Automatic annotation (TrEMBL):
Keywords: Monooxygenase, Oxidoreductase. This is Flavin-containing monooxygenase. Its EC number is 1.14.13.-. It comes from the Bacteria. Gene3D superfamilies: FAD/NAD(P)-binding domain. PANTHER family: FAD_NAD(P)-BINDING DOMAIN-CONTAINING PROTEIN-RELATED, L-ORNITHINE N(5)-MONOOXYGENASE-RELATED. The keyword Protein biosynthesis does not apply. InterPro entries: FAD-bind_Monooxygenase_sf (IPR051209), FAD/NAD-bd_sf (IPR036188). GO terms for molecular function: monooxygenase activity. It comes from Pseudomonas monachiensis.
């Protein structure tokens, strides 16, 4: 059994940010447990064609780790390089245990510590446990009759098979969200025919990408210039909350802009009808793409709407609801992740045998999206209601670190063993979150999205400005906690 002061589960940006903040606080007795055989999380795992970030790169980066980005919206390869840069710059390579797939974690009431059981790397113990597995780590593949009979190739965008040659093949993309919107334009010119199965159309706005010239990249090497650009982007994006929550005229203005963009890029009226959402913009994730609509209008691309959806799958392809049989060589599942009910994928047992699965039976919830009653010394990075639809998730992660490190420092400096949020504090916070959520487009926009849990509660998103979340996490409130 290996024992550390802190264990971090996950090595993506959340895990890296936690590790670096621990080092800055003078805590080096920790390990990152990574289930895969490589370090880095989302941007090392998601290598599908066209993969790129949809937040400007200078903002989608750690505030203490600036980078010489080559373009405004970095592609996967550059995000992978950035991840390696962060890992090497802060010396995290020796702090990770690869192939450590967590089976379950349990709180030891007697010794006041967490025990982490893994499939291949044995057992680990720690006083503090930080879950940083991320909300986009559990791919979802829907079930259809006959699915196992298909004789062609299938895989999820999260696990793209680069050994498979899709050129001149008959390919189906199942899904029409953010990943699909990147894959479709990337592969359509090379496939024989591409069938896109869209359950619900998404709102699309143009992607204002640009490559940085040599002088601009040189300029961004100066921290004041980098910080100025970063904060300029931040405040520009922060105004989007006004549309999502506070102003119907503002959201209608953006929606009209999206409709004009659709009409300009898709002249065919029938295709435009299939691509026009029947819910308010922002209710589902808005897609940024200047290439998706023209690709869907290509002669070798067919868009199948809800009425032409998948009825079943057989040995050679897909049977649609309207009776068509579509012969296929490849089916790509671009069907997203379990980002709400599956926030933590492994069993967690807390104080007095309390099971997280039972606590979250109705819907996932957490104080500041980070801490739970009856689960001492456990912190969840990007937990319930920490998602942010208008700006960088890394800003929220760094805000959570203020609270997490404050909790750990308080326990250490006071010579204590554990910290636990009070039931009433979590309940008050959760009630506030869902009361505020009623005013947002995510709740009232007329759609069902992955932002919502099975209960209908919006779990993925924080219902307000990101600086409001930062203010809430800025300092520990001792009255909200049990210290022992």
């Amino acid at each position: 059994m290996q024992t550390f002061q802190v264990l971090i589960i996950g090595s993506g940006f959340g895990g890296q940010c936690a590790a670096i903040n621990l080092l800055k606080a003078g805590i080096d007795d920790f390990r990152l447990l990574e289930r895969r055989d490589f370090f880095g999380g989302t941007w090392c795992q998601n290598t599908y064609p066209g993969a790129a970030v949809d937040v400007p790169s200078p903002l989608y980066s750690l505030s203490f780790a600036p980078y010489h980005w080559t373009q405004m919206f970095a592609e996967q390869a550059e995000l992978h390089r950035y991840t390696r840069h962060v890992v090497e710059h802060f010396g995290l390579r020796d702090k990770v245990e690869l192939g450590a797939n967590v089976e379950r974690v349990e709180w030891d009431d007697t010794n006041r510590r967490w025990t982490v059981y893994t499939t291949d790397k044995g057992t680990f113990c720690a006083q503090f446990l930080i879950n940083a597995t991320g909300p986009l780590s559990q791919p979802v593949v829907p079930r259809f009759d006959g699915q196992e009979r298909f004789q062609g190739k299938t895989f999820h965008t999260n696990n793209w098979d680069h050994h498979y040659d899709y050129r001149q093949k008959r390919v189906a993309i199942v899904g029409s969200g953010a990943s699909a919107a990147q894959v479709i334009p990337a592969i359509a010119p090379d496939v024989g025919h591409l069938h896109v199965f869209q359950r619900t159309p998404h709102w699309v706005l143009p992607r204002a990408d640009r490559r940085f010239g040599r002088f601009q990249r040189w300029l961004l090497g100066f921290k004041p210039a980098y910080k100025l650009l970063r904060w300029g982007i931040y405040w520009q994006f922060e105004t989007r909350v006004i549309a999502f929550k506070y102003s119907k005229p503002a959201v209608h203005m953006v929606q009209r802009q999206a409709l004009r963009f659709l009409k300009r890029q898709v002249p065919d009226a029938e295709l435009r009808r299939k691509l026009t959402p029947d819910y308010t913009i922002g209710c589902k994730r808005v897609i940024l793409s200047s290439t998706l609509y023209p690709t869907l209008a290509r002669s070798n691309v067919t868009l199948h709407g809800r009425e032409q959806g998948i009825a079943s799958i057989d040995e050679t392809g897909i049977v649609t609801l309207d009776g068509q049989h579509i012969d296929l060589d490849l089916i790509v599942w671009s069907t997203g992740y379990d980002a709400t009910d599956g926030v933590i994928s492994y069993p967690v047992t807390g104080k007095d045998g309390t099971r997280l699965k039972e606590v979250w039976a109705q819907y996932p919830r957490a104080y500041l999206g980070t801490a739970l009653p009856d689960f001492p010394n456990l912190f969840i990075v990007t937990g319930p209601n920490t998602g942010i639809g208008h700006t960088s998730a890394l800003f929220i992660i760094e805000s959570q670190m203020n609270y997490i490190l404050d909790c750990i420092r308080t326990v250490k400096t006071q010579g204590l063993r554990s910290i636990e949020v009070r039931h009433e504090a979590e309940r008050t916070y959760t009630e506030m979150i869902h009361r505020e959520m009623e005013r947002t487009v995510w709740k009232s926009g007329g759609c069902h999205s992955w932002y919502q849990s099975k209960s209908g509660h919006v779990i993925a998103m924080f219902p307000g400005f990101s600086f409001s979340f930062h203010r809430l996490t800025r300092a520990l409130k001792p009255a909200d906690h049990i210290l022992s």
